[in-house]
């Protein structure tokens, strides 16, 4: 009984959190990803590995919330958002791996892949057309 109660409680908190994620949170995370992307570019150009690695952490953290998409309010599906989120994280790891081994071109091409993911979702936002 105690276990069930705990389970219900955890589920309740999870559901509450998912619902509590609103447009204000989304904009905050979007801005955080934008600043991480700028920082990544800067770090590549200034040859500052730490700057890039810190920004990758920040990018991945904010990218994890992309999939919390209440599709009733949005122009894209949760399924699509989930895939985008995981692609962004995958390419962010690519930036990290390349930068760690001193491959700036490799880091830059993964950076472009992330940017392409951002743009493909933004292209779906009807009010932005
Ligand atoms: C799955 C969809 C999706 C993906 C992927 C996505 N965005 Fe967004 N983005 C949105 C939505 C939705 C908005 C809000 C549009 C609105 O309502 O004005 C937004 C808005 C923004 C804004 C404007 C914020 C503001 O202050 O108005 C920035 C900057 C931004 N995104 C950056 C990024 C970056 C950088 C990435 C990639 C790393 C990214 N986005 C990936 C859906 C996405």
Q: Quick summary of this structure?
A:
The protein is mostly helical. Helices cover 77% and strands 0% of the residues. The termini are far apart.
Distance between the first and last residues' Cα: 53 Å
The figure for the number of domains is 1
SSE ordering? HHHHH
Uncertain residue segments: none
Fourth-level CATH superfamily: Oxygen-evolving enhancer protein 3 (PsbQ), four-helix up-down bundle
SS elements, strand count: 0
GO biological process, one term: electron transport chain
GO molecular function, one term: iron ion binding
Organism: hydrothermal vent metagenome
InterPro entries: Cyt_c/b562
Explain what this protein looks like in three dimensions.
- The chain has a single domain (22-128), classed as Four Helix Bundle (Hemerythrin (Met), subunit A) (Up-down Bundle), CATH 1.20.120.290.
- It is built from five helices and no strands.
- It has helices spanning 2-20, 23-45, 49-63, 78-100, 104-122.
- The protein is globular.
- The termini are far apart.
- The relative contact order is 0.11.
- It binds heme C.
- Heme C is lined by residues 27, 30-31, 33-34, 37, 66, 76, 81, 84, 88, 114, 117-118, 121-122, 125.
- Residues 27, 30-31, 33-34, 37, 66, 76, 81, 84, 88, 114, 117-118, 121-122, 125 line the site of heme C (HEC).
């Amino acid at each position: 009984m105690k276990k069930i109660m705990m389970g219900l409680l955890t589920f309740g908190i999870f559901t509450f959190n998912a619902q509590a994620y609103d447009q204000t949170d989304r904009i905050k995370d979007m801005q955080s990803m934008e600043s991480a992307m700028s920082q990544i570019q800067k770090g590549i150009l200034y040859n500052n590995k730490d700057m890039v690695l810190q920004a990758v952490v920040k990018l991945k953290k904010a990218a994890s919330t992309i999939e919390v998409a209440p599709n009733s309010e949005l122009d894209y599906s949760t399924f699509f958002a989930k895939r985008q989120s995981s692609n962004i994280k995958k390419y962010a790891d690519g930036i990290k791996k390349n930068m760690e081994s001193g491959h700036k071109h490799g880091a830059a091409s993964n950076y472009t892949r992330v940017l392409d993911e951002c743009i493909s979702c933004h292209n779906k936002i009807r009010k932005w057309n």
